[in-house]
Amino acid sequence: MTDVAGLGDGVATVDGQTVFVPFAAPGDRVRAEVVAGRDGTLRATGFELLEPGPHRVVAPCRHFGTCGGCALQHLEPAFYAGWKRGIVETALRRHDLADVPVDDPVPAVLGSRRRARFTAVGRTGGVVLGFNAAASHTVVDVLECPILTPRLEAILPPLRTLLADVLVPGERLSIEALDLAGTLDLLFLGRTEPGVAARAALAAFATSADVARISWSVGDSPPEPVALRAPVRARFGSVAVEVPPGAFLQPTEAGEAALRHLVLAEAGTAARVVELFAGLGTFTLPLAAAGARVRAVEGSPEAIAALRSAAGRLRVETELRDLARSPVRAEELSTADVVVLDPPRAGALAQAAEIAASSVRCCVYVSCNPATFARDARRLADGGWRLLRVMPVDQFLWSPHVELVGVFDRGGGG
Ligand SMILES: C[S@@+](CC[C@H](N)C(=O)[O-])C[C@H]1O[C@@H](n2cnc3c(N)ncnc32)[C@H](O)[C@@H]1O
Q: Quick check: 344 and 277 in contact, CB under 8 A?
């Protein structure tokens, strides 16, 4: 085994051909059966470990190797951190930005994932509850998950018992679970509305398992509250925000704090900030509390309403806007000292083009996808901007995902 590929699979070369070996580590000697996928990619279906490589460690979770949630538990921490930094460096290299310094990632810690999506499938006499197996729709019955907060991990057994009464055999649903410093919020994503008996069971469960709120949603319909026992609030710096069911929050509290620290370090002294993809105000509210006048733009009506109401007397102007269809124009951006943006995985190419054409001097780009970040960074660089530094933040422990903050300023001529 020579390397670890971008999605976390081990990479071997056999007879001059690349073979992907999931859950193998560099330096491992393995015996494996290799099959060709429909696209011609060669993959091992499993392997026998003949000799471990120097970076291999014992995976801490019993589900490692079957559960699709983690791809990299078997790598020692220093190698794993370097590999995550390498994902960012590779993305930048592809867009001719190889000379940009990339920091070591801010590490994710065990027991810190406060947000997770579980899948449940009804079975005769019970239910399977957990995460999908790797590259499969089969659900792994998760009995432990060391990356989750203890509160989230502890909700799995009672949730399994509840769902055994709610789901008929073969019925499938997802549960978005959020642990806000011990306050638990559950959103059930079902294919049909819950019946009278299911509603009663959910309400009783909220009390017995001390869940603050349970909501239910079918398809794209807005979540309907089924039980509400306590407010669900996030705190961004000194400001509290009511969290609507299903709203976006950073997956770990420590990762959110690291991102906020990096954003404030670059934009915290600005007088005027335009913030794009503002969500519930993770960065908006601390920036405004630090004295900035912030124009916060966001596409979710629920998020922007919550942000507006939390902002109170802070100098925050909110705007509901679809930034993919209607990016904020260069001339509107030019009134700001700093632009902060934090788009979804698809990135923000059209918005990057407007930033490039504006006369703003500084841009802080938070990203959960190094590939689209590097593409957008190229667009800014082509418009005369300099990417000064990239700071990765690991919030998805043992997965191939990595977040980052990139800081841009105008090159000499801008
Ligand atoms: C990665 S989240 C960041 C939110 C916030 N900055 C935070 O840290 O919690 C991306 C945000 O972009 C919003 N969003 C997604 N697509 C959008 C679009 N086309 N226009 C405007 N906002 C969008 C989502 O609702 C979400 O709040």
A: yes
Domains of the chain, first to last: 1-54 (2.40.50.140), 83-109+249-410 (3.40.50.150), 115-232 (2.40.50.1070)
| Dihedral angle sign, alpha carbons of residues 121, 123, 127, 128 | negative
Q: Is 277 near ligand 1, meaning CB less than 6 Å away? A: yes
Which letter, b or e, does each residue of 93-131 get, where b requires 16 or more Cβ atoms within 10 Å of its Cβ? Answer: eebebeebebeebbbbeebbbbbbebbbbbbeeebbbbb
pLDDT in tens, 184-218: 999 999 999 999 999 999 999 999 999 999 999 99
pLDDT tens, position by position, 180-193:
999 999 999 999 99
Ligand 1 pocket test target in 243, 249, 277, 285 with most atoms within 8 Å of CB? 277
Q: Both tokens of residue 221?
A: 């319909």
* Nearest C-alpha neighbor of 65 from the set 108, 18, 24, 27: 24
Instruction: Tell me which residue of 143, 162, 289, 150 sits closest to 214, measured CA to CA.
Output: 162
Alpha-carbon separation of residue 113 from 196, 201, 251, 335 (angstroms): 33, 27, 6, 38
